[in-house]
Request: fold
Amino acid sequence: MQANCPECEAEITLDKPMRGEIIVCPDCGAELEVTSENPLALDLAPQEEEDWGE
Amino acid sequence: MDPNDLLSGLVRIYSPSIQERAASEYLVAQMNALGFRAFVDDAGNAVGILGEGARDIVLLGHIDTFHGYIEPRIEDGKLYGRGAVDAKGCLATFVAACARVGACEDVRFIVIGAVEEECSTSKGARYALTQYAPAFCIIGEPSGWDRITLGYKGRVLVDYEIAKSVTHTASGARAAVEDAVAFWNRVATFAAEYNRDKPRVFDQLDASLRALNSDDDGFTDRAKMRVTLRVPTGLTIAAVEKEIAQYVDGANVAFSSEEEPFRAEKNNALVRAFLNAIRDVGGKPAFTLKTGTADMNIVGPAWGCPIVAYGPGDSALDHTPNEHLDLAEYERAIGVLAKVLAVL
Reply:
């Protein structure tokens, strides 16, 4: 399955994508989330925010 | 039982650390009524088990709260009261979501309302650590319904004490309190130098001076100081203590309340289930890293299973007089968690 990196548009191929899986774009290094398995769709992975507290 | 009634009933029972018994007994009764096999364990934790499967999913919340009673009330769809956010809302979310999913063949949902999370003993989590070996763990702390907490800083308390003979102020000799201040300055410099190339707060070593007292009886000059250090994942408690031990210079220094920093993995079935569940109800998920500590610091390294912290509410309201939880968000969190539990 193929899709393009939403950050740099590099073509990315995954054999067995899992929805919710986090991958790293081999071209630009952006963290991506598999938001759909078939058809394969990629979005930027959720940001890591920082927060006070427990 | 209506989830709002469950939460309101729990918040109505004031349960600061070491005074959790009535709240534990209430929660056990409610969980038994919902079909759990529930009991108060030997540590005082409220435990409810649903299902008979071979894999355990532990949902570890805490039933104690910060001190300071707040009269419970509902205003504009928000429940005000001590523990509404930190963290009875999360604990009630756990119970309601498990009940909504029901008993499953292959898993056991184990909800734990742990005691003494708000004090340094963490008695409830330390006991739970010895009782279970879960496949997945969810810690009950407020992340917001659409966010997943992946990590917490570590912590160590430093108690400094020095006593020396009284000298005349004109002698030029350094007073005990000046030694204490010099010690603090070295600790603060160590933290500042460590943080120099680290823009993210989660990666920084935070040093906080919490108390400084001095006195003399005409013969002995004394100073006492307490420092709290919030330790990032790039350091260990041992490394921090080894560094600080070099600054002692004749004083006594004791370390306590040591918790190692912990950061969970984010590419596993548990995180995927949360991301998908949040998206399925129209949310945009985010990860969060916290500067405080939680029971994740204790069970995360020991259990070694996929782990996150999750629960409704704004953790900025933790320990505040204005502590409250939006009941609509509470219901959304129950819905998200039920979707997660249904696929694990």
The first helix of chain B runs from residue 3 to 12. Chain B has nine helices and 16 strands. Chain B touches chain A through 35 residues (CB under 8 Å).
